[in-house]
Recover the amino acids of this structure.
């Protein structure tokens, strides 16, 4: 039947679709479902304003993922530099034409659509770096001279995002870039050197007031949240209370008192894991974490099996971004990482991030479908 | 491409990816471990914290007990206090919010600064009062504009209300805001908690202060579910203890007489048409001791005090020469002047002077090394004891005083109620001075040469001058005791809650009745037989009023003054003019009411105080409150709200 509907050249599409990594898509869908449930609960049992939109967005993003997956990975490789530089150019324009939102310029408007170049850069950077290392021979990877281009490729967007200011995304971009460079085969010696350099840079940033006051406060709060329970540490403390009071099996769907009584900030975005943990307990949160880990490990295995060097590094870069999101966000809400405003992928409400993540996995899917 | 199938690179990437995967797994395990710590190991701790977050014990403040007069007229009650609070945490911009509020209810800079200070002190999560005692219109406008006033919380509390305002301020007192000292004085944490409730007030003066415990009532408590902003989401009815309104107080006061007396006192006298009247009056039931009127002018309005008095008004009240903050009926002690003469006449009789004893008054009496003047320059001629009272002849008493032991006079004065305070429940009573040898010894204890009593001082004391002082309340008690022959004691509170207090017992005074009869006849002559207060006579034959004038010297006009042409008291500045006094009782035949009136610097008892007493007593006779049905305190208790929700 299908061959009748999709005759001729489309037979290939059908065959490609059959090679789609369905388990990965199912895992992602389960995670998004957890998001829908939690957003429904946060809205006190209402599909609006978040749950329904989240579900629809996921549906659209899943189609995008499949669509991107059907595009051969070598096409993506051809687009890698253009995408990277387009994103960089867009980032560069933000300080001039960007919308001010919550005290930072992060958005630009294009044809009536709001668009966050820093999000596009998450894909662009991964692709750009993968493309760069694709062209290097093994022995060149650890050569210092060949380290300069990727260093610049990472530093430029990180710097631009940092001045927006968006510390969380800047750190995320930087970390993703470093991971790709590391996975590409950077020698341990240079790696260690780089780590010390980063620590020195961090200290310098602290020492010479490069961080904004609120960013500094977040870090000091993270180091000692109980110091000021009604001020900066308040959110973190409330988050811990909500999680901790959830217990083994949680207070039940829509029964989270701390969240329902608005003790938590940003419940539908950055602190959504807290709500989930309060209502579904240790069992539920570990379950969700397991889903994330499964996605990450599946992704890494796809990367390891990919045909081209570009594909491998792109897949690992996408997975790295995803993993960083998960670790930073969950660490943040339970006091293991500073509160830097990183959403929980596919669960937090937010269209741009969802689109970035799913587009990333579209590349993963492409690498999988065109693995041979 | 050659690079595509570079096994070396693929191996490195796979190895590193594996390493990375291990790192992520480690990270996830760490996160899971942390979750274990939070959700399993420390679950109990966080559950408790969550409940503390969620439940808040709310104190239900009790309504204060009402205060009513003998017939049930409300003198102090509670009314709704519409106020607006600010929850800074919910306000995007406190200054902007206050600007918006200002458009409806003015928020002066001073108050704004105080609000901003409070926010810094108490944090963003505590509501802070922007303004209270709003009128209904302003309150509804605030409510209407609420969608545009982020962080503003309209709130309805209770505040004390005194319907008669200044008329009863000296009896009832007022309530005021809590101080740290009040908190420290509370015996239990529960009381302290109650006092900490926003807007809670405590009795500051008068009966409000004395009966604080009874009036306050009992606090209730209730658990409420609150959200992060402190907003109550749900009230937990189980286990709630409702508050109990305080006990009502039933007074002996007759509100209508009280109001009337205040008006009479405040009306300027004929000799001082432009002077505000700084005066006091007390009316008592001579049988029961019930105080029907306890008035003092000018008076403050207690309703200005419980909302937090404004500094300008406070300064005015404090600096006024007419002392509107002073209850002159109790806390003002004045030389009793000629109102002392009844007691002097009794003392004289007790030392053997017969009523028929006559003295020739030439207008002055030589004693020691100087003249003692009678108030009447030309003298009264020959007067007997009754005539000495009728005409208030000083010379008669100078003559008696030459041989009178001051301690006998002091003893009589004390039997008739001077020199002591009474349990009225109104703080601040002055004891007054009853001069005696003992008194002088203790008064001049550090100054040996002055401790001896000189007979010349008796000449001053016998006409109520010199060291002798008495409060209008004591003078009224004196008049009541002269009228009844019983040691009547005044009282202000008839019942606390439904407990009716017995009238204080009034044993017969140890005095010869015939001595009293002479004194009463003398007082009758003052008003009804053409005496010094003939003009203050009550015409109603059923209510024949006997009285006695008094004028107590504040400043003696000197020869120098006379040389400057200063002869009449009106020529003196107000504060140097003599005090005017009048005491009376009625009906003469079967006394029921006694009254005292004082007009500070009113110049003369017969012209300034007498007419006021007459007008007050005329109204007393008209109402005759002693025989009217009084309110049943049990009805009041039934009418109070027995318990009350927040």
């Amino acid at each position: 039947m299908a061959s009748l509907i999709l005759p001729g050249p489309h037979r290939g599409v059908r065959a490609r679709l059959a090679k789609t990594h369905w388990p990965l898509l199912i895992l992602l869908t389960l995670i998004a479902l957890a998001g829908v449930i939690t957003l429904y609960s946060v809205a006190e049992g209402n599909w609006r304003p978040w749950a329904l939109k989240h579900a629809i967005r996921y549906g659209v993003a899943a189609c995008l993922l499949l669509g991107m997956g059907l595009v051969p990975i070598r096409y993506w490789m051809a687009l890698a530099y253009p995408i990277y530089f387009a994103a960089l150019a867009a980032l560069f324009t933000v300080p001039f034409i960007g919308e001010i939102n919550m005290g930072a310029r992060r958005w630009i408007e294009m044809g009536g659509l709001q668009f966050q170049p820093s999000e596009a850069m998450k894909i662009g950077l991964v692709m750009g770096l993968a493309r760069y290392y694709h062209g290097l021979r093994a022995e060149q990877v650890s050569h210092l001279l060949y380290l300069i281009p990727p260093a610049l490729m990472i530093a430029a967007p990180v710097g631009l995002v940092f001045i927006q200011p968006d510390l969380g995304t800047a750190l995320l971009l930087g970390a993703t870039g470093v991971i790709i460079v590391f996975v590409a085969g950077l020698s341990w010696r240079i790696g260690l050197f780089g780590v010390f350099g980063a620590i020195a840079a961090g200290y310098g940033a602290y020492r010479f007031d490069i961080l904004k006051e609120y960013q500094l406060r977040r870090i000091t709060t993270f180091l000692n949240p109980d110091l000021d329970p009604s001020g900066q540490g308040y959110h973190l403390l409330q988050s811990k209370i909500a999680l901790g009071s959830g217990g083994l099996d949680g207070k039940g769907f829509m029964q989270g008192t701390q969240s329902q009584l608005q003790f938590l900030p940003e419940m539908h975005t950055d602190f959504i894991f807290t709500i989930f943990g309060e209502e579904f307990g240790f069992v539920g949160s570990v379950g969700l974490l397991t889903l994330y880990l499964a996605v990450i490990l599946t992704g890494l295995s796809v990367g390891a099996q990919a045909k081209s060097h570009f594909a491998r590094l792109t897949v690992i870069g996408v997975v790295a971004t995803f993993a960083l999101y998960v670790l930073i966000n969950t660490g943040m809400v339970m006091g293991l990482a500073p509160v830097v405003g990183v959403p929980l992928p596919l669960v937090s409400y937010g269209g741009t991030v969802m689109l970035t993540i799913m587009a990333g996995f579209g590349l993963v899917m492409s690498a999988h479908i065109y693995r041979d | 491409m050659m690079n595509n199938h570079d096994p070396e690179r693929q191996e490195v990437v796979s190895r590193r990816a594996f390493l990375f995967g291990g790192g992520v797994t480690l990270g996830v395990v760490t996160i899971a471990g942390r979750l274990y710590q939070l959700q399993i190991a420390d679950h109990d701790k966080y559950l408790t914290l969550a409940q503390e977050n969620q439940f808040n014990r709310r104190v239900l403040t009790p309504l204060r007990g009402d205060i009513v007069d003998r017939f049930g007229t409300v003198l102090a009650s509670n009314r709704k206090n519409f106020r607006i609070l600010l929850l800074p945490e919910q306000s995007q911009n406190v200054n902007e919010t206050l600007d918006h509020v200002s458009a409806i209810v003015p928020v002066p800079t001073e108050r704004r600064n105080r609000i901003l200070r409070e926010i810094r002190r108490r944090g963003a999560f505590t509501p802070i009062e922007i303004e209270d005692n709003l009128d209904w219109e302003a309150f509804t406008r605030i409510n209407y504009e609420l969608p545009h006033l982020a962080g503003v919380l309209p709130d309805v509390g209770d505040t004390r209300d005194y319907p008669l305002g200044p008329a009863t301020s000296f009896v009832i007192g007022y309530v005021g805001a809590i101080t740290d000292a009040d908190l420290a004085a509370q015996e239990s944490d529960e009381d302290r908690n109650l006092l900490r409730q926003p807007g809670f007030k405590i009795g500051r003066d008068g009966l409000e202060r004395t009966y604080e415990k009874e009036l306050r009532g009992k606090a209730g408590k209730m658990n409420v579910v609150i959200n992060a902003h402190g907003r109550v989401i749900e009230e937990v009815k189980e286990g709630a203890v409702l508050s109990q309104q305080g006990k009502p107080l039933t007074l002996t006061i007759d509100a209508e007489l009280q109001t009337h007396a205040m008006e009479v006192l405040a009306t300027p006298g004929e000799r001082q048409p432009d002077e505000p009247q700084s005066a006091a009056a007390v009316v008592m039931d001579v049988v029961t001791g019930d105080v029907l009127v306890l008035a003092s002018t000018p008076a403050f309005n207690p309703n200005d005090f419980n909302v937090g008095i404004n500094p300008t008004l406070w300064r005015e009240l404090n600096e006024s020469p007419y002392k509107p903050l002073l209850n002159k009926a109790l806390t003002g002690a004045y030389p009793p002047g000629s109102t002392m003469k009844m007691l002097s006449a009794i003392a004289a009789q007790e030392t053997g002077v017969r009523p028929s004893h006559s003295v020739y008054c030439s207008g002055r009496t030589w004693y020691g090394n100087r003249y003692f003047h009678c108030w009447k320059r030309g003298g009264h001629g020959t007067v007997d004891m009754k005539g000495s009272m009728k005409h208030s002849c000083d010379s008669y008493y100078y003559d008696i005083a030459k041989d009178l032991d001051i301690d006998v006079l002091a003893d009589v004065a004390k039997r008739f109620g001077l020199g002591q305070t009474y349990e009225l429940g109104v703080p601040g009573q002055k004891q007054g001075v009853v001069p005696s040898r003992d008194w002088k010894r203790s008064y001049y204890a550090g100054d040996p040469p002055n401790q001896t009593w000189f007979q010349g001082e008796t000449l001053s004391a016998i006409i109520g001058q010199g060291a002798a002082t008495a409060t209008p309340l004591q003078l009224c008690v004196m008049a009541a005791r002269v009228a009844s022959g019983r040691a009547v004691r005044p009282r202000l509170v008839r019942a606390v809650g439904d407990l009716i207090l017995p009238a204080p017992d009034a044993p017969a005074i140890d005095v010869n009745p015939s001595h009293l009869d002479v004194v009463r006849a003398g007082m009758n002559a003052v008003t009804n037989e053409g005496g010094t207060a003939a003009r203050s006579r009550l015409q109603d034959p059923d209510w024949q009023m006997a009285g006695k004038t008094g004028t107590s010297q504040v400043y003696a006009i000197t020869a120098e003054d006379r040389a400057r042409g200063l002869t009449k008291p009106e020529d003196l500045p107000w504060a140097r003019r003599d005090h005017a006094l009048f005491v009376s009782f009625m009906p003469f035949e079967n006394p029921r009411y006694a009254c005292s009136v004082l007009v500070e610097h009113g110049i003369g008892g017969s012209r300034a105080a007498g007419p006021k007493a007459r007008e007050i007593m005329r109204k007393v006779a008209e109402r005759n409150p002693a025989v009217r049905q009084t309110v049943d305190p049990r009805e009041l208790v039934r009418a109070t709200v027995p318990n009350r929700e927040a």
Q: What stands out?
A: The mean pLDDT of chain B is 87.
